[in-house]
Amino acid sequence: MSSTPRVRRSLSDIQYDYDHGKKDELEALILAWKGIKDLPASHPNSFFSIGGLHGEPFRGKGKTDAKWWGGYCQHGTVLFPSWHRAYLWRLEEALRSIPGCSNVTLPFWDECSEHSRENGLPSALTQEHFVIGGRKIDNPLRSFVFPQAIIDELPVTSDNPIIYSKPEGYETVRYPLSGLVGTPADREATKLHNAQFKDPAQNIDYLNKNISAWLNGQIIIEGNQYPEVFSSFESCLDAPNYTLFSNTTSAGAKNDADPKGPQSVPLESPHNYMHLAVGGFDYPNVGTDSVIPGANGDMGENETAGLDPIFFFHHCFIDYVFWTWQRRQGATDEFSIDPTDPGATYHPDAGVPPPAGPAGENPNATLSLDSTLDPFVKADGTAFTTRDCINIEKQLGYIYGKGSLDAYAQPTKQLLFKAKAVQPASKALRVSRINRAKIRGSFLISAYAEVDGQRVYLGTRPILSRWHVEGCMNCQTHLEATAIFKLPLNADASAIDENSIEVEVTTRETVLKRPKAAGLLSAGNAIADAPFKLEIY
């Protein structure tokens, strides 16, 4: 490893240099990506091989046995940040293996930057072509064409009819398009949907406007309005320990135990927002159905998210936020994992037999700093663990360039949402009993209430899921989706009318609503057809 760490810069900064005549860095990146995409599908450094490590194409027992998750990705566990850190390192090493590209680094899409809030994606991720050395080439960052089919071989039952397969030649898509083509019905629906969006330039505009809407959408936090996604990224930086910072299961358990107390925001939560913004969900602060229903981008579910190149630029930003948290919390050389935390196990609730872990992990394991981050190995051939990738500069040989959250790396930097006098929340709303196994794909949980006579958006909790949850025992480890929303006060400090509360669960197929929750906040919410439960604390 070189004594001088390589620098992962913001893609927007690299784009700026390119647009102003300094083309070398972006052109080298483009050639490196073209190189790994052109490799045979079976080559260990090919994009198909590496992108497929996250989910599809499934391998091992998970290929045909629904009790196993056939991908390697860690979600909802304490290994979420470190597994994806090792994943990025593996992809970057592949890029650097392409002849002439040994100095290439993986840039991050700075999702909290002013450029992203105003414009959406850097154009390097969306433009159709590049001209390099006088030769016009397809932009390898725009999409990925499958060199071979991925076949969902899990058993199909009456309760689980989903066949999440994609053919050779399939090209990944983003909002507003759909890429769901596993069954004849899905193929027909996708054909009709995509026929509405024939103009590539207009589709890029739709995508960028949707991303901008997500990044600029406002919520009320303790009496003040703030951008929802930015506030979520910012809030996770104040997580007091790695366990709560790392994943939704750990933070959710803590929040559930004290709904009225300060809410922990894990890194995985804002990560989910951006997956769904790119992968097909409109920003929900309108109180109606999806503006573009039927969008099913690959980034929107775990099965094929890793096969869209944008995945790695998104996750590079997530790793930048991880490193920023480490610097802020003085955890650049060490941190710990609470072995008693629910995010440190694959077990579901007590008394239920444990399912299989990702790609055949020990279902009885307690996750720790020494748990292997399969399938990634170090230069000496031994397995990566979280302990091996705590310090990115000393252990992995890279650092981050200038980013939008740099100021928060200083422990004394006050978070924006704490900078003004706060208004204490009167109560908290808990939404529960949402069974992920009954919902095809990812979904959103959103809440609204009447404040000072106006319908006010309280926020959204994004649930990044899969199409095959019902058949995946590992996915059922933390099967129930819950959400907690702090309820604001009226301007005169009086409590809002609880009967004005509305909750919507926006899925790929419909919107489940509990409009005007009168009569649903007491008597145990014992309504037979209620799709979820509401409680006020």
Content of β-strand: 5-15%
CATH topology of the largest domain: di-copper center containing domain from catechol oxidase
Structural class: alpha+beta
Mean pLDDT: 86
SS summary, helix count: 13
Number of domains: 2
The CATH class of the largest domain, by name, is Mainly Alpha
Output the strand order for the largest sheet. Answer: 11-10-13-14
| CATH homologous superfamily caption of the largest domain | Di-copper center containing domain from catechol oxidase
**Overall number of strands:** 15
CATH architectural grouping of the largest domain: Orthogonal Bundle
3D shape: globular
Distance linking N and C termini: 54 Å
Main sheet: strands, sense, barrel: 4 strands, antiparallel
Which ranges are low-confidence, i.e. pLDDT below 50, for 5 or more consecutive residues?
350-356, 419-423, 516-529
Domain Tyrosinase copper-binding: 75-92, 308-319
Region (Disordered): 337-360
Pfam family, one: Tyrosinase
Keywords: Copper, Metal-binding
What report would you give on this structure?
Strand 2 (129-132) and strand 3 (135-138) form a beta hairpin. 26% of the residues lie in helices and 15% in strands. Helix 4 packs across helix 12 and helix 7 (200-216) packs antiparallel against helix 11. The protein is globular. The protein starts with 5 loop residues before the first strand and ends with a strand. It folds into two domains: 1-151 and 167-423, Di-copper center containing domain from catechol oxidase (di-copper center containing domain from catechol oxidase, Orthogonal Bundle), CATH 1.10.1280; 427-536, Immunoglobulin-like (Sandwich). The protein has a four-stranded antiparallel β-sheet with strand order 11-10-13-14. It has a three-stranded antiparallel β-sheet with strand order 12-9-15, covered by helices on one side. The protein is an alpha+beta fold.
